[in-house]
Amino acid sequence: MAASPARPRAQRDLGRSLRRGFDALRDLTTASPARFAVLVFVTLILLFTGLFSLPAAAADGQRTPLADALFTAVSTICVTGLSTVDMYSHWSPFGHVITYIGVNVGALGVLTLASILGLVISKRLGLRAKLIAAGDSNPLRAHGGPINEGQTVRLGEVGQLLATVALSTLVIEAGLTVLIYPSLIMAGVDPINALWEAPYYAAMAFTNTGFVPNADGLVPFGDDYFLLTVLMAGVFLGSIGFPVIFTLWRHAWHFRRWSLHAKLTIITTVILFFAGAGAILLLEFNNPLTFGRSDAWDTTFQAFFLSAMTRSGGFSIIDIGDLHGSTLVVGSMLMFVGGGSASTAGGIKVTTLAVLALAVFSEAKGRQSVEAFGRRIPSDVQRVALSVVAWGATIVALSTITIGQITQAPIEEVLFDVISGFATVGLSTGLTAELPDPAVYVLALTMFMGRIGTVTLAAAVAASSRSQLYSRPVERPIVG
C-alpha cells in the first residue's frame, strides 16, 4: 500500500517531462523555421536510411551497405533519382514501397513538410507556421525581417496553398496513373503488375525523381509517344511549383491576373524547353549512338523529351554516357537552372535565372530599376538571386573537384553527375554507380544541399539578423 502514492507522483513527473519536451519542440518550430525544416529533412533521411538498411528491404535478404542505404535515402527524400545500386533488382517489394513513399514525402518540399508538422504540433496554423509555408514559395520569408513588396503567396492564403499541395499531388498522380495504365497494358505488361507500375511511374514523373519499376526502364517504350508525352506532362506539372499550380487553379487562363512569379516561371520554362531541345537536336542529330539512327520525327521528339528530363525529370531512353561532350555541357546548364520555386524540381530555379536576366537587361538599357509586366522587382530579390547562383556554383565546383580527385574520371562526366545530383535530376553518365564510398558521401551531401535550397541552408546556419544604425562612406571599386 505504501507504493501507491509514488505511482501518481511518477505519472505526474512523466507528464511534466512530456510537456516540457513538447513545448521545446514547439519552440523550435517557431524560433527558426528554416532550421526546423532542415532538421525535419535530416530526420527523414536518417529514418529512411534505417529502413533501406533492413534485410527485408533488399531482394537478397542481406543488409545493404551503409553508403548505399544512405545514398538511396538521400536520393529518395531529395527526389533526385541517382542511385549507386540497381533500383529494380537490388530492392525487394518492401524496398520499392519504401521508395514510393519516400519520394512522395520528399515531393512535399522541405519547408511545406516542416509547416505541416508544425501545424500538427501547434494544433493550428499560427503566424510562425504560416511563415514556414510561405517561405517555400518565397525564400525571402525564411530570412525574417520586413518585406514590403507583394508576395508570391500571401500569409492569409497559406492554408489554401497547403490544401492545394496535398490535393494537387493526389489528383495529378491519380490522373497520370489513369493515362499510363493503358499504355503499359498495350506494351505487354501484365495487368496485375501494371497496377503497381502505373502509379509508380506517375509518382516518379510528378515528383521529378525518375526511378523506374522495371528492369529495362523506358527503353521498351521508346516509340510510345503517348506514354512519353504523359511523363513529360507529369514532369512539367511537378517542376512549375505549387504556387504556380495554385495561381493557375484560381485564375485559369486569365494571364493578366497571374502573379509575377507565375508569369516568369511559365515563360522561362517554355523558353528553356524549346531552346534546350533545339541545342540537343543540333548537337546530336548525327550521333550514331543516340539520335543518328532515327528518323527526323523521332529525333525531334527525343530531343524535346531529353530537354524536358534535364529540367529535373530524370527519365532517359538513351544512354547518357553516349552523348557528345558538348551535349553534356548543354544538359548540365539546363540541369543547373532546374525548375520552379517550391516545386519538386531542383536547381537554382527558373525565376532566379529570369530575375538575373532582367537585371542584366535593365543595366544594359541604363534603367534605374528592374521591371517586368508592370511590376518592379526590388533589389533584395536581385541580391538573393545572385547569392543563390553564387552558392550553387560554389557547391557544384567543390563537389566536382573533390569527386574528380577521388575518382580521376573524365571531368565532363563528373560535372554532369554532380550537377544532376545538386539539381535533383537523376540523369547519370554511369559514373554514380561506380563511385567509391568517399565520393558517394560527397555526392549525397551535394544532393542534400541542392534539395533543401541554398537560401534555406543559409538561413538555417546564419545568426539572427542584426540592425545597423549607421552606414559607411561610399567608395566605388572598378568592376568589369
Kindly describe this structure.
The protein has one domain. The protein is 65% helix and 1% strand. The protein has 19 helices and two strands. Strands 1-2 form a two-stranded antiparallel ribbon. Helix 12 packs across helix 13 and helix 13 crosses helix 14.
Quick overview of this protein structure:
This protein is mostly helical and 480 residues long.
| Oligomerization state | single chain
State the share of residues found in helices, binned by percent: 55-70%
Number of helices: 19
**Approximately what portion of the residues adopt beta-strand conformation?**
under 5%
Structural class: mainly alpha
SSE string, helices as H and strands as E? HHHHHHHHHHHHHHHEEHHHH
Give the strand tally.
2
- C-alpha end-to-end distance: 86 Å
Contiguous uncertain segments of 5+ residues: 140-152
Looking at this protein, list some descriptive labels.
480 residues, mainly alpha, two-stranded antiparallel ribbon, 2 strands, 1% strand
Write the layout of secondary structure elements.
Elements: H1 6-31, H2 33-53, H3 66-77, H4 93-107, H5 110-122, H6 127-137, H7 140-143, H8 158-186, H9 191-206, H10 225-240, H11 242-251, H12 260-284, H13 296-313, H14 325-337, H15 350-365, E1 370-372, E2 375-377, H16 379-407, H17 411-422, H18 437-452, H19 454-461
Helix pairs in contact: 1-2, 1-5, 2-3, 2-4, 2-5, 2-19, 3-18, 4-9, 5-6, 8-9, 8-10, 8-11, 9-10, 10-13, 11-12, 12-13, 12-14, 12-15, 13-14, 14-17, 15-16, 16-17, 16-18, 17-18, 18-19
